[in-house]
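#onboarding

Welcome to the new folks! Below is a worked example of what a typical request in this channel looks like: someone posts a single protein sequence, and someone else replies with the predicted structure as tokens. Don't worry about understanding the tokens yet, we'll cover that in week two.

Example request:
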Amino acid sequence: YQRIFDWYYQHPELTEGDGRDPEVLCDVAYAGARLGTRIGDSGTLQATVDQVLPAATAVDKYCYDAYLLEAFLYLEKGNPLDASKTFKQIMDFNKYHPEVRVGMAMYHLEKGALDEAEREVARALKINPNLVPAHQLQAMLHLFDEEFEPARVELEKALAVNPNDVDTIALLGALFQYMTDEEQYKAYEKRAL
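Example response:
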């Protein structure tokens, strides 16, 4: 993340003026957010994220990635109300965006509305049955009900889409640890590392 963030400062032609590329701006904002999380969210990094995301949407008002990143950052910082507003803003452009549905599911989950979270995950998977975060969230919802086998099936669906997804591998390892399947737990723990 540090390299991407440093690169941002070395290539102002891509992030300032008429040459701004909204995808580059979103990559920089994502890197800044992750780096800020790792080093304690320094004010400089947060200020950059706060500047870069509005710049991306100024270049392209339909830059879903910028809105999504902003909404997920709101969720990460414990601000579900602003996250919900941003997700709804994206739905004004495209109500069939599957990642927005996952975000709304996370919003409902944080609010304790499990039924609504399940409906949003189902909508996301109907739009894109290969959306890894939707399978992960569906697995977590199964775990709330202590439905271990359906949770495992959802995580294996996610792994079938992306066999190297570290989050899915770690979730499977944690699931097997919880199920006290030491052999499977060790296998996934080793794979995650």
